[in-house]
Design brief:
The chain has about 600 residues and is α+β, with helices and mostly antiparallel strands. It has 2 domains: about 325 residues, 3-Layer(aba) Sandwich (Rossmann fold), CATH 3.40.50.150; about 200 residues, no CATH class. Helix content is about 25%, strand content about 25%. β11 and β12 form a beta hairpin.
């Protein structure tokens, strides 16, 4: 019997050695750091520490208001930058509030964001930071949009920005929201977002949009494969099988949710396991044990809202651990927030600051992305945004925020199309030609009905109204498609408009081509991805207004010099369908965070079908 047991133990040991050997083959080793990386950031230690030292110190104390504060990602980020601050916090989650009071005792708590008034903070605010609820925006939610039950708290944030008029602001939310929600947020914050995938700066994959009037970073630091940005750096006595961890959500498989994290190999017990809560804290940029506090009596603790209850049962033996996981899943990525706030360390940022102008509207009942009287570009039959229409009225589901959900009706947007004035038709195939998107346009008397917001591309803001006509021209900081008719092979390319000059006296008195038009632009160069372009140093001058074909909506992809252009309605249509398909498949929302890679997968499936 003893011999038999010895052979069994020997076989088990051999199987374990073989298993470890196979695991080692699967471990992805990052490429060695380049000479440039070694010069900028030492191989050992945290890259953010070296980054902060290069910036220098901020010689002033900031007055900061953090909305939807969670477990204090804003304060952790400011601490990482070694910035002195006087803090005010708004948070209603009782467990998050306990973490805040335990870890940041000097921060003043204001309670519910809905109840904040100007008298609550007597001094001037330097910075407002907030990531408002994403449940109605995320691809894993119900897609009720910005005016949904929870995400409409954006308008309370907007009210506070109007109320306090801070010097700087930083607003964060999911990148998987529909373009129409992104367009509305950009409209009322009066700026374009930057999309950053946190795996470029941390050990976690997570795509987020950031709206801010802090100067855009021109270039991301080349630290994606830095040792401190790899999952291995955050593990305790375990081996990472992947370089990065998946998107951290409030509920992963670890506690019965829908998003699965990669497993790691525990060196002590010789088994595969998920990351621990303490390791997760380090992945998200918090100190180990940040949420390890006394939460009080947990007898009445309910881990999920009814619509978030996962289909598979989760073990709740350790309620405090579940609470900690949920709080971390709802939190900022501290390292990314530190990076976004880092330009405030530079004197040049403060010297160049100008008073920021928000949209004059902030009450939700007055706000909608498509408003009466606005001029919008729509896609033509060639999927190019060169048709123009004035919004006459809108009603129905998705934009009518006052209607009862029990009485939903289809979206109805009445528009009046514009056509190019006969004086500007020279060298064009027809009145809807995609080769001409500027000049004088006249309203067509007949109204038209649109029943889908997917057909709309973007709101036009650079035009001059001349009676019932609209003179449309390329404006500063806009991206336009330009048609080169003079080359041997006519081509379409894209430019960022730097300056535009027009003599408006000539516009009203002379025919096409004599407007005194002059424009300076910088060329955009396409990368390996079809919709990603990089801003080049090549400058181009234009005297012919007719060369500009159509304005292209864009946002910053990772940094100020890389743009993502939305060249057709195809991606928007697929984006709209993702949420519905996922709801049928998954059955509900999974809290604040979502697995972005799953969203990408679904878009590929849609394209394949």
């Amino acid at each position: 019997m003893e011999e038999l047991l010895a052979k069994i133990r020997e076989a088990e040991a051999l199987a374990l050695r073989l298993k470890e050997s196979e695991l080692k083959k699967k471990i992805k080793k990052p490429p060695p750091p380049t000479t440039k990386e070694k010069e900028e950031f030492p191989e050992h230690g945290d890259w953010l520490d070296a980054f902060r030292r290069n910036l220098g110190a901020l010689d002033r104390r900031l007055v900061v208001l953090s909305l939807f504060d969670g477990i204090g990602g804003t304060w952790a980020a400011l601490d990482r930058l070694e910035v002195r601050y006087k803090g005010y916090s708004s948070e209603i989650n009782p467990y998050a509030a306990r973490v805040l009071k335990a870890k940041f005792p000097n921060v003043t708590h204001l309670g519910d964001v809905k109840d904040i008034r100007r008298g609550d903070i007597e001094e001037e605010i330097d910075l407002v930071v907030g990531g408002f609820p994403c449940q109605d925006l995320t691809s894993m939610g119900k897609r009720d949009g910005l005016h949904g039950f929870r995400s409409r708290l954006f308008f309370d944030m907007l009210r506070i920005l109007h109320l306090f008029r801070p010097r700087w602001f930083l607003v964060e939310n999911v990148a998987s929201m529909t373009w129409i929600d992104r367009e509305e947020i950009s409209k009322y914050l009066n700026c374009l977002p930057i999309e950053i995938d946190s795996q470029d700066l941390t050990a976690s994959k997570r795509k987020r949009l950031y709206w801010t009037n802090i100067p855009h970073p021109e270039k991301l630091p080349d630290v994606r494969n830095h040792a401190s940005n790899l999952l291995q750096h955050a593990l305790d006595d375990a081996t990472a099988l992947e370089e990065k961890i998946g998107c951290v959500m409030t509920c992963n498989y670890y506690v019965g949710g829908f998003g699965q994290l990669q497993r790691v190999f525990d060196r002590k017990d010789k088994v595969l396991r998920y990351v621990t809560v303490t390791e997760l804290e380090k992945v998200m940029g918090f100190p180990a044990g940040h949420t390890d506090i006394d939460f009080g009596n947990l007898d009445d603790f309910v881990p999920f809202a009814p619509e978030q209850t996962p289909k598979r049962k989760c073990k709740l033996d350790d309620k405090a651990k579940t609470i900690r996981w949920n709080l971390i899943g709802n939190s900022f990525s501290v390292t990314v927030i530190s990076y976004m706030l880092s330009p405030l360390m530079l004197p040049s940022t403060w010297e160049a600051h100008v008073i920021y102008n928000f949209s004059p509207k902030f009450r939700e009942s007055e706000c909608a992305v498509l408003e009466t009287g606005e001029l919008w570009a729509l896609y033509n039959t060639r999927s190019q945004p060169s048709w123009y229409a004035v919004i006459l009225s809108r009603s129905g589901d998705r934009f009518d925020t006052l209607q009862s959900k029990k009485k939903k009706k289809g979206l109805q947007i009445h528009v009046c199309f514009l056509e190019l004035d006969t004086g500007f038709l020279a060298a064009n195939d027809d009145q809807w030609s995609p080769l001409r998107g500027t000049g004088q346009y006249n309203r067509i008397d007949k109204a038209d009905l649109q029943t889908s917001w997917v057909t709309f591309s973007h709101r036009m803001t650079t035009f001059k109204k001349l009676g019932d006509s609209y003179f449309i021209y390329p404006g500063e900081n806009e991206v336009w498609a330009v048609f080169d008719r003079d080359s041997s092979r006519p081509t379409l390319y894209y430019v960022l408009v730097l300056t535009t000059e027009i003599d408006w006296n000539l516009v009203t008195r002379t025919p096409s081509g004599v407007e005194g038009f002059a424009s300076r632009c910088r060329l955009l160069q396409q990368t390996s991805a079809s919709d990603i372009f990089r801003l080049t140093d090549t400058e181009v001058a234009f005297k012919d207004l007719a060369q500009f074909c159509f304005k292209v909506p864009y946002y910053f992809k990772g940094e100020g010099s890389v743009f993502k252009l939305e060249l057709s309605k195809t991606g928007k249509y697929l984006n709209h369908k993702v949420g519905r398909k996922r709801r049928r498949k998954k059955g509900g929302s999974d809290g604040e965070e979502e697995d972005e890679s799953e969203s990408d997968e679904m878009e590929e499936q849609e394209q394949g079908s």
